[in-house]
Amino acid sequence: MFSIFEAFAKLTIISVIVIALLLIFYVLLIAGLCIGFFRLKNESTNFDNQVFSDTKTRFSIIIPFRNEARHLEALLETLNCLDYPDELYEIILINDGSTDRSLEVIENFLAAHQRLELKTLNNKRVSGSPKKDALNLGIAEAKMDWIITTDADCRVPSNWLKHYNYKILREACTFIAGPVCFYEDQNQLLDAFQQLDFLSLQGATIGSFGLSRPFMCNGANLGFLKSSFLRLNGYAANNHIASGDDVFLMQQFLEADAKAVGYLKTWHALVETAPQPDLKSLINQRKRWAAKASAYKSRFAVLVSVLVLLGNASAVAGLFFAEIYYLLILKVAIDFLLIWCTATLFAQKKQLKHYVWVALVYPFFTLYIALVSQFGKFSWKGRDFKK
């Protein structure tokens, strides 16, 4: 009997040590990303310099959509307010088999706003990723030098293209990632959870750029040189994966020339996107995002993914061991620091009051998504996909 208790005691000690080490590694990772966040300089908003005012980049804005009648008018309103010479940008919308009033919304808006000009195309499915098919079609039709992508449920700032132009001319980038956050919808608690979750992702994104180890970006605010996209064969290497049109493309640009990949660190270039309306939609969205993780080629991206997963698993396991509660408090604190940095940059502090309960729920949510995303199917926009 004594040997059984002795073995159990040893197992407990080993478990505590392993969990403690994993939490320490996680805290060091997030601390490193916080350092990277501060290292990355904020973008200037001074467009008065003669070089930048006289020289203009030409942009093709590519926007796939499927059943976005609810959001399209808000997007079109912001596109109509873009402060950039009309002759230097074009807007291409790609209809990915919408079955709602999306096309009608677009037609009605154009009839009432004569200034806005855009082209609408119908998607042609050729791969396992409808969105990448739509983007490829739009890029093939694009007449301008630079491609800018966003989503149909987004709202873009009026100086959006000016910030890209300034960044391109100042740093000679070929790929630029921009900031994204959620705007408030109607479900207060679910919105708060999504906003804080997304602020952590954006903080990690900015931090990784500050460390010169970018591993994440968002297709809702992305720009790249069309000629480089074509030279790198675009999405050809991963068009069998439903998502990842942003991250996998960035990895290709990083492999080609890491110094030409930049980030727009300013809330003036912030694109706002719609949160998911209910828990089921949120789970499907996160499953879609997580399903691509196993296809990452970047060792740093894999390391971060594994440490984040193990860190959250350790947070759950650590609840059973009072000896490491101080490490759980440290994890909560360092996570808050990264989120606070991002919320401050984006002027999105309102949801920070929900942080405590979100911090308690989030590890369980992360583990659940990590598990279910690697098995079975997920639904998105009325379609079923396999991992």
UniProtKB/TrEMBL annotation:
UniProt keyword Magnesium present: no
Residue ranges of the TM segments: 12-38, 300-322, 328-347, 354-376
GO molecular function, one term: glycosyltransferase activity
Protein's UniProt keywords contain Kinase: no
Source species of the chain: Leeuwenhoekiella nanhaiensis
Entry superkingdom: Bacteria
Pfam families (UniProt xref): Glycos_transf_2
Annotated ranges, domain Glycosyltransferase 2-like: 60-173
Protein's UniProt name: Glycosyltransferase 2-like domain-containing protein
Keyword line: Glycosyltransferase, Membrane, Transferase, Transmembrane, Transmembrane helix
